[in-house]
Structures are given as structure tokens and as C-alpha cells.
Write a structure and sequence with these properties.
With 496 residues, the protein is α/β, with parallel strands linked by helices. It folds into two domains: 2-161, Leucine Aminopeptidase, subunit E, domain 1 (3-Layer(aba) Sandwich), CATH 3.40.220; 180-495, Aminopeptidase (3-Layer(aba) Sandwich), CATH 3.40.630.10. It is built from 14 helices and 21 strands. It has helices spanning 30-38, 42-49, 86-103, 122-136, 167-192, 200-214, 223-228, 232-238, 292-306, 352-363, 379-385, 397-410, 443-452, 483-495, and strands spanning 2-6, 18-24, 27-28, 59-63, 72-80, 107-110, 156-160, 217-221, 246-253, 262-266, 268-272, 312-322, 333-336, 342-345, 370-375, 390-394, 414-416, 434-435, 460-464, 470-471, 477-478. The strands form four sheets. Strands 8, 9, 10, 11, 12, 15, 16, 17 and 19 form a nine-stranded mixed beta sheet that branches. Strands 1, 2, 3, 4, 5, 6 and 7 form a seven-stranded mixed beta sheet that branches. It has a three-stranded mixed beta sheet with strand order 13-14-18, with helices on one face. The protein starts with a strand and ends with a helix.
Length: 496
Amino acid sequence: MEFSIKSGSPEKQRSACIVVGVFEPRKLTGPAELIDSASKGYLSDIVRRGDMEGKSGRTLLLHNVPGLLGDRVLLVGLGREKDFREREYREAVRAAVKTLDETGAFDGSIYLTEVPVRKRDVAWRVRQATLTAIDTVYRFDRMKSKKEEVRRPVRKLTLMVERRNELGPAEAAMREGEAIGQAVALAKDLGNLPGNVCTPTYLAERAQEMARAVGLSCEILERSDCEALKMGSFLSVANGSRQPPKFIILEHKGGKTGAKPVVLIGKGITFDTGGISLKAGEGMDEMKFDMCGAASVIGAMQAAATLKLPLNLVALVPSTENMPGGAATKPGDIVTSMSGQTIEVLNTDAEGRLILCDALTYAERYEPACVVDVATLTGACVVALGHVATGLYSNNDGLARELLAAGDDAHDRAWHMPLWDDYQEQLKSNFADMANIGGRPAGSVTAACFLSRFARKFEWAHLDIAGTAWKSGAAKGSTGRPVSMLTHFLLGRVDH
């Protein structure tokens, strides 16, 4: 989809469709009033008759509206003006793009970007509109023999701004939205692929392809390299799988020479059976999504490189399957991590922390400005926060605030959870330095506490995306979260 920015009156636009908003009850927005004036009350008559009341997300497509150069007018309900916030704005854009995509309009001029959103400027409105549009038309049909047919899908969207002095900020925001939207789509593609296709080797190859395309450096550590580095915890998870593990390293050198990098770490379990601590069969197919943390950091690196962010960045992705087998790690086994700390593996289904801890230790060599790890880590986080907010843990309140603000700006939100030393008691082991689980109480917290033991040498945050990385049911599929949060976080770091 092609995007552009423009300023101008709606009645003068030569477009397949002009999109304007209507507030409830039956109140035209400014651009809609201009069309109404040019058409001698055509829109106000429709609104007065009750064909469009302005209810949030409702649409009404009009043909041959008099006095206009455009072919069609699409009215989009915005809900009540006093309640119009970020969520309502995004839903209005989504409804508009969905209707355009289904009705054969090749292009559209979107005037929703002129509608004020409380505490949000034009750059935010344009960035979010671009992101939402890309997300709305996303399809994953690669594995189907017959593709879903879309009748003449929308190809071009012009995002309108009210004043000419807004064109510059809007252009920049549009480019950011495009880069983030494409990165989200990449993360979704990787997450939606089945485990027999998206293996650790495939994930490494896709990371290499992406790196070549956008100018990142990419290095893949093989099993022998990881053995030489004494990544005993990471490799213990790979023991039961016939698929070789891969440790993916991506670097973006956009900052000053010698400037400390931001390090992103993504959990890359391409399929998680639970290992010897086998999961229940119901819903196990969704464990192909257990590499969504890896997909999100790969996506964020693509966005950063596309935008040529003046930062030094590193992404680390430990990737393996977690399978049962004759060589698989058993409950009660003790493994030695790269840090030298020993871990009693009481549950092989708590494997994400076992691969992340070695990645956290590996990150020390970069003397990072900060480290953010992303993982579908615990079912306990889903119980705590559902499917709305990502769980955020950090050993630095400033870093936590940055991520919270980025999530709020991106509408890809997180919630700050406790990381108190009181919870560390649950990880005690009689036989090793620590156990890999802390029991049922506060399971997401104790998982973060486990990781914190390997992150003492730098500012660190952990994002538990178990509840937000994918959807089940009729809308089943990867969400691409938290690519948008991570990229907004990096954009914020540029401004520092």
C-alpha cells in the first residue's frame, strides 16, 4: 500500500473515495461540513434521516455526491465527541480502510487525520493511521493452496492534514508508521508460520535475508560456538530436538563510534512441547507462537534500520525447539549457565528463562546502555493481565518509564509489575544456585526474578508478552506486539 500526505479541501480532491467522520448524534466533522456545503446539504439530509447517526465504527458509502470531484464519499462514525480518544480514532481508521478494501475503491483520501484527538498531535494521528491501515489489510495466506480473493484492494491512501505547516511533521510520521507497520507484518508472518517451516534454521535465514535488505550485520552462532561459550543453560533446552539451535546476532551501527548500544533480546522457541514436562494436547498448536519475542526484536531491528535511527543497536535471539526425546533435559537435572551459576531444572516447560539467561550474560560483552528482553514467558502473566497489557519488569525505574511511555504512545501498552527481592526466596534450591521455577504463586514475577539474577551488570527490562503476542479463536494469529512499542522506545532514545 502506498501512502502520501496532502493538504486541501475535500470537495476539490480527485479521489476514488473521500473519507470523513460523523460524531454521534449526527454531527458532521469540519471536512464533512465542507462537503455538505459544496453538495448543498446532501450529507446533512442523510444524517437528518438517520442513515448515519455517528455510532463508533459504522460506515456509509455514498456515490455521486453532487458538487465534488471525488467518485465516492465514505462516512465513518466516530462515537460521541466527548469520548473520542486514541482507541476510537484507531477504530475509525480501521473501519474506513476495511470498507475501502472491500468496496473496490483503488485509492482514498482520509480526512479522519484532521479530527482532533485529545493530547495527540498531527504526527501521532498520521503515524497511527498509517500503522492501523497496514494492519487492517494484513493477510496471511502463504500456506493455503487457494488464496483469499480481495476485489480490487485499496492501493493508495492519502492522509490529509488541515494546515500546510503540518506537512513536514506528517511526512516524517508517515514514514515512521510505514516502517513500523512493515516490521509488525514481518513479525506476524514469522509468528504465523507453522513449526515445521519456521525452525531455528529458518528463523536464522530470514534474519540474514532481512539484514542484507536493510543494511544490518548478522552473525549466527552454531551449536559448537555456543558450546565453546559454555551456554549450558541454552543448550540444555535444545537437547531433545533434532533441529540444531541457532544464536542470532543482529547489529545496527547508526550511532557514534563507541556509543553504548541498546540490546534487544528475543525468546526464539520455534515450538514448545514443554519437553519432558509435556504440555496438555489442547491448544498445543499455538506453541508455534513461542518465538514471537524473537520475531518482535527482529521486526524492531528492521524498523530501526529502515528509519536509519542514529543509535547503536544489537539484537540477540537464542532459538531452539523444546522437544521430548532420549537426550532431553529431565526434571531434576542441573545445568550450568554461561554465567557459571547453576540451575536445577524442576520443570522443563519453564524453558524460556533458560535460553534467555545465557543471552543476558552474552549481552555483557557489549557494555550496553540498557537491555530489553521480550518473551512469551509465562501463563501466569495471562492470568494477571489478560490479553490487553504486556507485563513489564525492570531493575531501573527510568527505563521502565521509557517503555511505559512508548507503549502508551504506540497504543501497545504494558503494565509495570513488581520485582521485589521478597519473591527471590521462591527460587531457592537444595542442590543448585537456584531452581528454574518458584511454584504457582506469582509465577510471572518469579520468572522475572530468575532473569534479574543474570542482569545485574546493566539497566534491564523484561517484557512478558504471553498474553499479547497472539490471539486465539476466530481471530487466531500473531499480533506483532510489541514491535510498535519497541520502535517507539527506540525513537524516544533518539530524542534523548
